[in-house]
Structure prediction request, 306 residues.
Amino acid sequence: MLSFLGVYSNVVNELILINERNKSMALIGNQTFALSKWWASKTIQLVKTDRNIFSKSKMREIRKALIAGDNVIKGIHGWMQAAQLLGRVKTGEYELTNFGRVLSDNDPKLEKSASWWAIHLAVCFSERGEPYHQFFIALDVLTKDWIQWKILMVRVDSSIEDAAKGSLTPNLEGVRKMFEKDNPLAELGLIETRKIRDEGLLIRLGSPKITDEIIVHALAMIRFHHYKSRSTVDFSELSKDGLGHFLCCSSEQLRQHLRRMNQSHNWKRYFSFNEAVNIDSIAFEEDCAPGKTLLLLLQQGEDTWL
Prediction:
């Protein structure tokens, strides 16, 4: 219940790793592999009981537990860190972040769509979030036109630091696979893909169902990653920093969502949307904090699986 918010009061400190976009971000390190619901939930349970499970001495044990080879284990490890579910204590030793614990407490098998929306947004704002972040930024959010995969790769490549380019291709393939077949993010409808004989693989932003709980959690996430010391921001800044791309909606669609939510008493404790002649702005209220909006999303969020 939301009355248990005090239990998770430290979630902001561990979940929010403030990014400065002028600094290089580490790559996910997914080894071309996607992260399944079972791998993610099983890894959370393993780390709960053994913080050394990813150490070299425990490789045989974790391979057996996850039914996976060395490269897949590295990929799972990369995704778990990129999603801010695991935090390193010291070399070879990891523990769950408060974010990971909250997810596990509310959805042990990670079966809720809300859990994967939270994971998606966590990777978008993660210090290990590339090329996931640029993958969304590089896609057209206004017309949602199809783009060839090879062209998208060039776009993402141009936005990544030179030091990371050598590992970009496998990481980007792992990101794309998260939105294919029966992988959990594919079931949210964030990304669409198709193959055409003469053009190869095509990709575009999808049209997922975006609930108010998702939007308010996204606002809380971007607030603490980009505007932590500010109480208000211009609406244009939300667009510039990619919020529309991460929610797969245009700036005008996002504006309409915020305008509608602003008219409801339900969201007064989280934000207000102020309209002016030339500049619209967002004022953040006290409850617009990831620790609070995460629980709201997990406990009251509507099912958005396709």
User: Anything to note?
Assistant: The chain is about 45% helix and 10% strand. Strands lie at 86-90, 93-96, 147-148, 191-196, 200-205, 232-234, 271-274, 281-284.
